[in-house]
Specification:
Layout: E1 2-4, H1 17-21, E2 29-31, E3 35-37, E4 40-42, H2 50-70, E5 79-83, H3 85-96, E6 103-107, H4 114-119, E7 129-135, H5 143-155, E8 159-165, H6 173-189
Parallel strand pairs: 1-2, 1-5, 5-6, 6-7, 7-8
Antiparallel strand pairs: 3-4
Length: about 190
């Protein structure tokens, strides 16, 4: 599982995830975003123009996945997990990467330029398995907008399992972690 943090965080903020998910057979790679941001890191500049940073980070993550493939970690046995900005990057990779992954988990994020994304889907995009969760109490990224974006991606043929939780901009404890565990397990049983 490749883990992508949110804005201002770092891989250190997700060291709790491997033991908490209790999937001891799974290897984890926690990744820092490329740009410094107030003591943490950022995948793209959300305040100005996100597109160049999204494209650059997408290229970086494509290379990372390609490198992992070359080192014997098959893409079809790799899950991508992202929170907030990391969720956006996870959706980007799932829609555009030319190889099928075991699964893509996006938590509390949104879709960058969804209409453009739908026009530029990789041939493998409709074979990918996505889990996207969001909070009805999220003060940073409104639920209704994200739900519309996800429905647009579903209408384009993407297989997205969508879950809403009564949560703010966070992970909703054991209930949400259980949904993530079940989704990840199913990706390795297929």
């Amino acid at each position: 599982m490749v883990v992508l943090h949110g804005l201002g965080d770092s891989m250190a903020g997700y060291r709790w995830l491997p033991p908490t998910l209790e999937l001891s057979w799974l290897n984890y790679l926690l990744v820092n975003a490329p740009d410094s941001y107030f003591g943490g890191y950022s995948w793209y500049d959300f305040a100005d123009e996100p597109a160049p940073g999204v494209a650059r980070s997408r290229g970086m993550l494509f290379r990372l996945l390609d490198d992992l493939r070359a080192k014997g970690f098959p893409t079809e046995l790799t899950t991508l997990f992202g929170f907030s900005q990391g969720c956006l990057m996870t959706l980007e990779i799932g829609a555009r990467y030319p190889h099928k992954l075991a699964g893509l988990v996006g938590i509390s994020g949104y879709v960058h330029e969804p209409e453009t994304l739908v026009k530029e889907l990789a041939p493998t995009a409709t074979q990918q398995r996505f889990l996207v969760t969001h909070g009805s109490l999220d003060p940073l990224i409104p639920l209704a907008e994200v739900r519309e974006q996800i429905n647009l991606l579903k209408a384009a043929g993407l297989h997205i399992e969508w879950h809403e939780f009564a949560k703010a901009h966070t992970i909703a404890g054991l209930a949400e972690l259980g949904v993530i565990q079940d989704f990840v397990k199913r990706g390795y049983q297929a």
